[in-house]
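Quick one: structure tokens for this chain, please?
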Amino acid sequence: VEQPFSGTSVEVELTTDVTSTLYDLMNAGYEPHFALVYGDVTKQLIELGRLLKLETNVFI
């Protein structure tokens, strides 16, 4: 039974090839979830990953 979509959808634009980026994400095991933020917080997230000793991958 098809379930109705009850989430929030957004469109994003990547500076990289979307097909290869999608395959990279799926092959790495990433879940299709995301956070939407206003502004560039890349450096802060990389630093948070470093502090928490988490591998951090950046897809722009």
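Residues 1-55 form one domain.
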